Amino acid sequence: MPSQSFVVAFSDVVRYAPLYHGRNFVGLNYDEMLPAPTKTFENEEHYKTWHRGVKSVWNLAMSLDGPEYRQFLNEKGYDYVPKEQFLNVLRFGDHWCSQNIPTNTMRNHYNQRVPQPRPEFMDDNDDYRVTD
User: Fold this and answer.
1) What are the extents of the domains in the chain?
2) Of 41, 66, 108, 123, which residue is most buried, by most CB within 10 angstroms?
3) pTM of the shown model
């Protein structure tokens, strides 16, 4: 009897085709979108169990702010991940996201796309004053 698998497509994830120069990755082609990523599960019950686990961790993370959120990520073994990207990291993993989901960009004064700088944090208990 063939095994029944349950395939889920994540239509809320946008991926763009990579651009290569020879073998070197040079960027993303924002004019060509790739199909939605899929994940295969043994059956529907396995998917529902996985979904409940991801959703509970994500809901807990969304209820935290500032230092508590960063501490939560550190305890789970993640580097800092912006809240709007954390659901995809939970669903697909950090490595997959870094290779398939484009980084946040902004336009400079030459109207070119450049990567957005990573945020720097200063916790309430850090002393930022310069002392001799």
Assistant:
1) 6-115
2) 41
3) 0.70
Residue 78 and residue 94 in contact, taking contact as beta carbons nearer than 8 Å: yes
CB 104 within 8 A of CB 115: yes
Q: How far is CA 131 from CA 5, 126, 128, in A?
A: 63, 13, 9
Element spanning 61, H or E: helix 44-62
Q: Which two tokens stand for residue 73?
A: 């990520």
How large is the angle between the packed helices 83-92 and 44-62, nearest 10 degrees?
150
The tens digit of pLDDT for each residue in 27-71 reads: 788 889 999 999 999 999 999 999 999 999 999 999 998 889 999
| DSSP secondary structure code for residue 90 in this structure | H
Residue 72's contacts (CB-CB under 8 Å, 6 or more residues apart) are 60, 61, 64
